[in-house]
Design a protein that fits this description.
The protein is of the alpha/beta class and 315 residues long. The protein is 41% helix and 19% strand. The chain is elongated.
């Protein structure tokens, strides 16, 4: 299999993934062309690409893969997709929102499998596209919250309704089903953030972070984390980066395994399954990080087993 050079990793294929891919190999011995558009140069994108490659190589699938790095430049997607239309690949893999949004707009006659997209909105309801989203189901988020912070029942969350009204509605329903109460506050602009935070000071046990460009960004990190510490309300971050900054904990993804999931979807499509018959899926693996320094500041105890299972513990 021909790919751009990438650092080797120790990867283990799940039995399901091997079976799906091996089944396709038995069904068709011909080489298939796959074009890959990568939005960014960051490590998670390379990990996902390695996972995709490893899954195909492990199954012995014959594929010729050409990789088009976009380096964060949306304008670079056009020439790459033009090349794809001319070369007529059997499938296009997109990693990241930038590449995915361009592909679903410009390509209608080639199957697209997307990875490292926040949610299914990036697919634009294109009938020829499916993929693996980064968002965990709200049920998963709350199961972990109950495990890490079993005594906390009132969950505060700030959100921009344009981006996240649907997710908050689903979260309110999921919270009720497990005995939690969601205290949601709309934030239409960054100017509203201080008042929205203050309104949760005596009404929330935990502040849950959801991916939201208005609420959670480089300008809001400091006020949110200061609010958390001053009010002893633990903040659940979006990733290990937030945990390093001061969030109590965050769920994260195994990006190599997301690449494997993309490979499994690709194999089903190459077997003849239409993309529209394959709903987007969430990451099947959950990894997490914990900030013990924050826990001490908030006077919280983190169960020893959770610390042993963490990807990273920040002291």
């Amino acid at each position: 299999m021909t790919l751009v050079p990438a650092r080797k990793r120790a990867l283990i294929l799940g039995a399901l993934g091997v079976g799906v891919l091996a089944g396709w190999v038995r069904a068709a011995g011909a080489e298939v062309r796959i074009d890959v558009l990568i939005s960014q140069d960051a490590e998670p994108y390379q990990q996902a690409l390695e996972g995709f490659r490893h899954a195909f190589d492990q199954a012995g699938l014959k594929a010729m893969v050409e990789v088009f790095p976009l380096h964060g430049n949306a304008a670079a997607a056009g020439p790459a997709l033009q090349h794809a239309r001319q070369s007529q690949p059997g499938l296009i893999l997109t990693l990241g929102s930038l590449a995915t949004q361009a592909a679903v707009l410009q390509v209608t006659d080639t199957p697209i499998v997307a990875g490292l997209i926040l949610n299914a909105d990036d697919l634009g309801k294109a009938p020829n596209a499916t993929g693996v989203v980064l968002e965990f189901p709200v049920e998963t988020e709350f199961q972990w919250l109950l495990r890490v912070l079993p005594g906390q029942k009132k969950i505060g969350v700030l959100f921009n309704p344009t981006e996240n009204q649907g997710r908050i509605d689903a979260a309110a329903k999921a919270a009720r089903s497990v005995g939690l109460t969601l205290q949601a506050r709309k934030v239409d602009s960054p100017r509203e953030l201080p008042d929205a935070l203050d309104s949760l000071a005596n009404r929330a046990d935990v502040l849950w972070g959801v991916a939201d460009q208005v609420v959670l960004n480089s300008q809001t990190v400091k006020p949110i984390l200061l609010f958390s510490i001053r009010n002893r309300i633990p903040f659940i971050g979006l990733s290990q980066t937030w945990v390093k900054a001061g969030a109590l904990y965050a769920l994260d993804r195994d990006y190599a395994d997301i690449g494997m999931q993309c490979a499994e979807l690709a194999a089903k499509i190459l077997q003849g399954k239409p993309p529209r018959a394959l709903p987007p899926v969430s990451p099947r693996k959950v990894i997490y990080s914990v900030n013990l320094k924050t826990a001490r500041l908030l006077k919280l105890e983190i169960e020893a087993g959770l610390l042993r299972g963490a990807q990273a513990v920040i002291n």
